[in-house]
Amino acid sequence: MEKILRGIMRYRVLDRASMVKQFQEVKDNPTPKAVFYTCMDSRMIPTRFTETSVGDMFVVRNAGNVIPHSQHFVDEMTSCEPAALELGCIINNIRHIIVCGHSDCKAMNLLYQLRSEEASDKARKPRRRLGTNPKKAAAN
């Protein structure tokens, strides 16, 4: 945590003024060219490897750069993924959507592992309902 706090203080002294100037330049007329979905993995730094700057693109980060299907948002549920699409494509007329994955993604590895375990469980035994305790059911 100390490293992060030192970085914030260093930013305020060295970089803040130039960043504020960049923010002011795009404040009234941002022209993002893409909506960029990527993983929240700390190894991913999208503005570095895309060589983009303030105002160039909307960046949405989550575990595994997952974009849920719109059918999952039929009620009052909200999520930043579809909101970014609407803001980018409808409001700002952005024509480019980028979904950027990476190697050794822990979120994707976990989903793959869960699917593999589920498939092998189905082959071995009948499924039980979520929330039931097989030991407790056997005791009754």
Number of strands: 3
Query: Average pLDDT across residues?
Result: 83
CATH topology of the largest domain: Beta-carbonic Anhydrase, Chain A
Tell the overall outline: extended
Helical amount: 40-55%
Rg for CA atoms: 22 Å
Query: Would you identify the regions where 5 or more consecutive residues have pLDDT less than 50?
Result: none
What amount of the residues lies in strands? 5-15%
Task: Spell out the blueprint of helices and strands.
Blueprint: H1 2-14, H2 16-26, E1 34-39, H3 46-49, E2 57-62, H4 80-91, E3 97-100, H5 106-124, H6 134-139
Parallel strand pairs: 1-2, 1-3
Structure description:
The protein is mainly alpha-helical and 140 residues long. It has 2 domains: 1-30, no CATH class; 31-101, Carbonic anhydrase (Beta-carbonic Anhydrase, Chain A, 3-Layer(aba) Sandwich), CATH 3.40.1050.10. The chain has 6 helices and 3 strands; from the N terminus they run H-H-E-H-E-H-E-H-H. It has helices spanning 2-14, 16-26, 46-49, 80-91, 106-124, 134-139, and strands at 34-39, 57-62, 97-100. A 3-stranded parallel β-sheet has the order 2-1-3, with helices on one face. Helix 3 (46-49) links the parallel strand 1 and strand 2 (57-62). It is extended, with a radius of gyration of 22 Å. The termini are far apart. The model has no long low-confidence stretch (mean pLDDT 83). Keywords: Lyase, Metal-binding, Zinc. Its cofactor is Zn(2+). GO terms for molecular function: carbonate dehydratase activity; zinc ion binding.
